[in-house]
C-alpha cells in the first residue's frame, strides 16, 4: 500500500509537470552541450582525462572505504543479535525530519569558497562512529533480556544514528557543493553527472565488498560437533 500510494503520487506529479510546466524559450543556450550519445561519451572521456579530475575521482572512489563496513553491516548484525527488524525500521522514522533539516543547515557552511573543508572535518567523526557502531553490536547481547531490549539501548542507538546522519550529510552536501562549484557552466550537466556518479560509486563499491567479506571474516565455532569446521555457510549448515 505504501509503495502503491507513493508510486501513484510520483506518476501524477511528473505527469502534471510534463503537461503544465512550460520552458522559457527566450533563454537559448550559447552553445548546445552535446548532439548525441557518442558526443556525450567523448566529452566525458575528455573531462576525465584532465589530471585534476582524474586525481579527484580517485580520491572520492576511495574516501568512503573506512566506514563502509559500519554503514553496510551494522543494521544486519543488530538483527542477528536479536534486535527486531520492525524496531530498527521504527528507529528510522525520527531520522526523516533530521535528513530534511540537515542539508539546509550544512549548506550554509558549504556555500563558501572551500566547500570540501566540511567534508574533511566530518570524516574523522564518521570514522569514530564506526567504532561506536561496533560497540553497539557487541553491547546488544549484554543488555538483551527475555522481554527484548531496554529502552535506554534503543535511545543510544537512535542517538548514534542521528550523529551518523550529521556526519554523512556533512560529507554528502559538501561533495555536491564542490561538484557544482568546479563544473564548467557550459557543460555543467554532463560535468556534474560524471562527478556525482563517481561519488555515488565511491560509496557503493566499498559497501558491496564489506558485505561480501562478512562471512569469510566471521569467526565461528561448532558447538557439540568436534572435528567439524563451520567456516563456510555450507559447513555451518551441516
Q: How large is the share of residues in beta strands?
A: under 5%
Helix content: over 70%
Stretches with pLDDT under 50, minimum 5 residues: none
Note the gap between the termini: 40 Å
Element string (H = helix, E = strand): HHHHHHHHHH
Apparent shape: globular
Secondary structural class: mainly alpha
Keywords:
73% helix, mainly alpha, single chain, 10 helices, 238 residues
How would you characterize this protein structure?
The chain is built from 10 helices and no strands. The chain has one domain. It is mainly α.
Task: Walk me through the topology.
Elements: H1 2-20, H2 37-48, H3 51-62, H4 68-80, H5 85-91, H6 95-110, H7 116-143, H8 151-182, H9 188-217, H10 233-237
Helix pairs in contact: 3-9, 4-7, 4-9, 6-8, 7-8, 8-9
Quick summary of this structure?
One of its GO terms (molecular function) is acetyl-CoA transmembrane transporter activity. The chain has 238 residues and is mostly helical. Helix content is 73%, strand content 0%.
Amino acid at each position: 500500500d505504501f509503495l502503491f500510494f507513493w508510486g501513484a503520487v510520483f506518476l501524477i506529479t511528473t505527469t502534471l509537470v510534463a503537461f503544465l510546466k512550460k520552458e522559457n524559450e527566450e533563454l537559448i543556450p550559447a552553445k548546445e552541450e552535446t548532439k548525441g550519445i557518442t558526443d556525450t561519451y567523448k566529452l566525458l572521456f575528455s573531462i576525465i582525462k584532465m589530471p585534476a579530475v582524474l586525481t579527484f575521482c580517485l580520491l572520492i572512489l576511495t574516501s568512503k572505504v573506512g566506514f563502509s563496513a559500519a554503514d553496510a553491516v551494522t543494521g544486519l548484525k543488530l538483527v542477528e543479535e536479536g534486535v527486531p527488524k520492525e524496531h530498527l525500521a521504527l528507529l528510522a522514522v525520527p531520522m526523516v525530519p533530521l535528513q530534511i533539516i540537515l542539508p539546509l543547515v550544512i549548506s550554509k557552511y558549504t556555500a563558501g569558497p572551500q566547500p570540501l573543508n566540511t567534508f574533511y572535518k566530518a570524516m574523522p567523526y564518521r570514522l569514530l562512529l564506526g567504532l561506536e557502531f561496533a560497540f553497539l553490536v557487541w553491547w546488544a547481547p549484554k543488555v538483551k533480556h527475555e522481554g527484548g531490549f531496554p529502552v535506554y539501548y534503543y535511545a543510544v542507538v537512535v542517538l548514534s544514528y542521528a550523529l551518523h546522519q550529521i556526519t554523512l550529510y556533512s560529507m554528502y552536501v559538501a561533495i555536491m557543493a564542490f561538484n557544482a562549484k568546479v563544473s564548467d557552466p557550459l557543460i555543467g550537466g554532463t560535468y556534474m553527472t560524471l562527478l556525482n556518479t563517481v561519488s555515488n560509486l565511491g560509496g557503493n563499491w566499498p559497501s558491496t565488498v564489506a558485505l561480501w567479506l562478512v562471512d569469510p571474516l566471521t569467526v565461528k565455532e561448532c558447538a557439540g560437533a568436534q572435528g567439524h569446521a563451520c567456516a563456510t555457510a555450507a559447513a555451518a549448515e551441516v
